[in-house]
User: Fold this.
Amino acid sequence: MRRNYLIALDCICLAIIVLAFTSYIEQNHPAVKNDGNVIQSVDTPLVVSDEFYGEEEYKAQNEISTTPKPTVIPKKPGVTAVAFLVGDVVSGEILISRNMKARLPVASMSKLVTAFAVTDHLPVDTQITITREEASSTLDTSGLMAGENFTVSEFLYPLLLNSSNLAAEALASSSDRSKFLELMSSYAWEVGMPSTFFADPSGLSPQNVSTASDFFALARYLLEYRPDILKITRIPTISLATTSDHGAHEFVSIHPFVNHPDFIGGKTGHTRAAKDTMLTILKVADRTIAIVVLASDDRKSDTQMLLTEVEKLIK
Assistant:
């Protein structure tokens, strides 16, 4: 009997302990509840205060940037161009360069590709008429007028010498403008300009982009396969007489090195987005040297500085 009494007392003590423990859990841990004979956990979100990290670290941990930060290429003293390349056109040796793979707007340097694309696409004696729409919507200082007719070969003078945007549009629109732009990009790829894209035939669009390396490849292509294009670019000035198709015009080169005795050819460009751009091919100490400058504050000064440097290297 004494044994039964002890067992009963032990059970009462155990029950008291269980009840006390359950009460303690419910009072001190509200995330747990007693549901009959089963203890269930209650899901509550975990909230981490910014004090856990400290204010700056918390912001860094939780900040999500939706706007990509632009890559800023710092300029160095001397040459102002963001990107440039000086190389031997015949051997392909690159002598001086900075950011030569940087993809930047190229402005009217695009017209070099316009020129060889159209002469590959159309016979040079093809007659093209400047439309009223083209003349009224295109920024141009060449003196060309709506209703005038020029052959493809005649259009190359205002296109390459005084950089006529109207000539570029007339040539591109002579058949199918969109297909002509595709043709330009296709030609660029074929001649070794994989980073180049053309949104228009003139270079007014900031989406006409390329690299100094690509335009060095173009210089090599023009020298070997299209010396006729380079020959036009080294004409200082040319006059076209009045005919039944068009009025009299004088086209003057705006390339600052056109009167240099060793100038072989090239093309300038300028827009607000592109700043100054230029390709210049010169004979230096019996070597044919191409100088490409992109995003320059002063293309003539930059090219002259690079020319001086390369003369020191190869003489």
Notes: Confidence is low (pLDDT under 50) at residues 28-73. The longest helix spans residues 2-28. The longest strand covers residues 275-284.
